[in-house]
Design a protein that fits this description.
Largest sheet: 9 strands, mixed
Number of domains: 1
Shape: globular
Oligomer: single chain
Bound molecules: flavin-adenine dinucleotide
Number of strands: 23
CATH architecture: 3-Layer(bba) Sandwich
Radius of gyration: 21 Å
């Protein structure tokens, strides 16, 4: 059987790997070059212990409060657009405690194999940079760790096995000398990891190429047509025919689905990141700076700071102010390692998180369209959820059966 995967971000490339290792003939279509999308801009966290929906009690009001705050961690802007208003309405409903808890459970089960799957990628020869020291959440204010610690109260009864250590500021500095003196409390989650996202994309690209997947960069899918028992994918470079099609286009998913009469509630949420040089010993852990809600990831040769969640967004433009703020807000949390003073703002990047109202991705068949599947809407968790998503889609495509842990990610009742 043959499958065309449309989209060469972290989701599409993982799907290609999972399908190919089951013997499927696979072609990936990527409209740009691999490694240019939001899948390269992110912090690279693999965080089963932080896999919770953004739509949570109180978040709607908080987002609107910061609608026009140019420095806010989360901003939700009102806009007269029917699709956006519908999305917001669903987001508000999804933030109810019972729906939120169902979402936490669904993501928890989807993540059951996440760490093993990253190990499998590695063991299979996908060459990427992965760090396993855990995530250190840092707070400066009393109560600053608040929601983070409550999260574990929800995860533990579900069977979460990760280890969580509560630390004072000095204990955190002893553990990781990069932690600043203003930090008063911290939590270390031992099972979380982080990757260098570009290395993951590059490693997957190289490995699937070796495995015989055809990766066609600079090739945009324009239209899907059903021809008898197969699909025809129209591109400017000619048509491709395949038994199955998987749409993994992140925030651009509707561009291909809309002509088929399907519009999924996926909007872009803009986030920013910048890679920095600095002086001193690099942080040993990925750091979550609780008050400004920033993520900091140390890699072999650089440190990335990432953050902001601007809803809705449809372009990747950068404001110097946003990028500068990432660094300014991070500085007080650091001391043993300090970012270089001569910051080149122009190296900052932005990307669109494909965001659904309930913060759960769509992973499954498109009802009414044989052999057409979607894997999109992973929001702030695309790297973490990519291998599990890919395995689920590969299972569906090759055995036509829906694994039970994918039930909460189906379209029914959510569009
Ligand atoms: C600042 C920031 C920090 C983040 N940090 C993390 C993190 O630490 N951990 C985590 O798990 N997640 C994180 N995320 C989220 C994560 O980056 C996304 O969820 C993930 O990258 C989405 O991947 P994707 O493959 O669905 O989409 P994309 O990466 O957008 O891939 C879709 C691809 O489709 C291509 N395309 C578009 N139209 C067409 C077409 N017509 N034909 C062919 N190709 C097309 C695009 O060029 C693109 O390459 C972060 C995001 C941001 C912005």
């Amino acid at each position: 059987m043959s499958t065309v995967v449309i989209g060469g971000g972290v989701i599409g490339l993982n799907i290609a790997w999972s399908l190919r290792r089951r013997g499927e003939e696979v072609c990936v279509l990527e409209h740009s070059a691999i490694g240019r999308s939001v899948s390269a801009v992110n912090a690279g966290w693999i965080t089963p212990s932080l896999s919770t929906p953004l739509a949570s009690p109180g978040v709607f009001t908080l987002g609107l409060k910061h609608a026009f705050d140019r420095d806010g961690a989360l901003s939700i802007r009102p806009k007269l657009d029917t699709e956006w208003i519908k999305w917001l309405w669903k987001f508000r409903r999804a933030a109810r405690p019972d729906v939120y808890e169902t979402g936490v459970r669904a993501l928890f089960h989807l993540n059951a194999q996440t760490l093993d799957l990253f190990d499998e990628l590695h063991d299979d020869g996908v060459d990427f940079e992965m760090h396993q020291a855990g995530l250190l959440a840092l707070a400066q204010t009393p109560g600053g760790l608040g929601w983070f610690t409550q999260l574990f109260d929800q995860l533990l009864p579900m069977g979460f096995t990760g280890k969580i250590d509560y630390l004072t500021g000095s204990e955190a500095r002893e553990l990781d000398p990069a932690v600043g003196t203003s930090v008063s409390s911290a939590v270390l989650t031992s099972l979380d990891r982080h990757v260098n996202p570009e290395s993951l994309l590059c490693g997957l690209h190289k490995r699937i190429d070796e495995m015989g997947v055809l990766v066609r960069e600079n090739t945009s899918a324009q239209k899907l047509t059903r021809n008898g028992s197969s699909w025809s994918v129209e591109t400017a470079e000619g048509n491709l025919s395949a038994d199955n099609v998987v749409v993994a286009l992140g925030a651009a998913t509707n561009t291909v689905l809309r002509p088929l009469g399907i519009t999924l509630p996926i909007v872009g949420a803009k986030g920013y990141s910048i890679d920095l040089g600095g002086a001193g010993a690099l942080p040993q852990h990925s750091l979550y700076l609780m008050e400004p809600k920033l993520g900091l990831s140390p890699y072999l040769d650089t440190v990335r700071i990432a953050g902001a969640f601007e809803l809705p967004a449809n372009d990747e433009s950068i404001t110097n102010r946003r990028i500068r703020n990432l660094v300014d807000q991070a500085r007080p949390y650091l001391s043993g390692w300090t970012p270089d003073a001569d910051l080149d703002i122009s190296t900052g990047r932005a990307g669109l998180r494909p965001s659904t109202p309930d913060s759960l991705p769509f992973i499954g068949p498109l009802p009414g369209h044989n052999s057409l599947f979607v894997a999109a809407g992973h929001g702030m968790l695309g790297v973490t959820l990519a291998p599990a998503t890919a395995e689920g889609i590969a299972e569906l495509v090759t055995s036509n059966s829906l694994p039970s842990h994918l039930l909460p990610f189906q379209l029914a009742g959510r569009i």
